[in-house]
Amino acid sequence: MTIWNLGSINADYVYRVPHLPGPGETIAAASLERGLGGKGANMSVAAARAGTHVGHIGAVGADGRWAVDRLTEYGVDTRWIRQVAEPTGHAIINVDDEGENSITIYPGANRDIPESIVGLALAEAHPGDTLLMQNETNKQRYAAGIGAQLGLKIAYAAAPFSVAAITAIMPHLDMLILNAVEMEQLHSATGLVPGPEMGVKTVLVTRGAEGCVLFDGDNGHDPQHFPARKVTPIDTTGAGDTFTGYVLAGLDRGMPMAQAIDLATRAAALMVMRKGTADVIPDLREVQAF
Binding positions for substrate (predicted)? Predict the structure, then answer.
């Protein structure tokens, strides 16, 4: 099977800072690194490294050829990434000494993905494949409509959070992945909680060091708690994306949900002990040995 990921591709500029700057504050960074990132690219790399076939649907500018080449090196199928007039998206990431981060994103080419390439990619999809989306690109609603018609399993990682974006595609979703803050934002805006009223069979709420909570329609949407691995974090950037990619890859390979979550939890634990994003996502052998 294949995971089709309509996802962002960014150049990540990571600044190591003593603490996250407050309003009006200027601080000096101890270091700067450029790497491959974007929630979409991170999830594609994670799923590919977890052992599944990933077709990435996206766009870069004329300055982004290096990012496409790197995705290819990491095992991602990049035939549905197009070059557009907008510059490649980028992110400014501040990471403090405790491993916490703050991120500013410039969408660039990620908001200029041609509708035609979405259609061309999904024309090769088969029932039972997975369509994955986040909120750093355009064309989510269009892709979800096609995916539903084709019988794809549609998963949505609701970040950066937008009530309008999530409610527009919620009727098509089979799986919703979001963190505790995003779940509270969704509830505050709509009154919805995981369950039959939401209309999404599977909701997975990540809680950082506290693990995650699964609400699954097969279990009556009763919450199931999964603990996180206890590690000392160095950099939490990309950990949630790694978790999502590994969960979906595990499910794509036929794992029960609990086993896929366990695998993803280990991958995320390894990830927070590393500096960087897509370039340092662990592969399946590392995760299984952890």
Answer: 10-12, 38-42, 136, 241
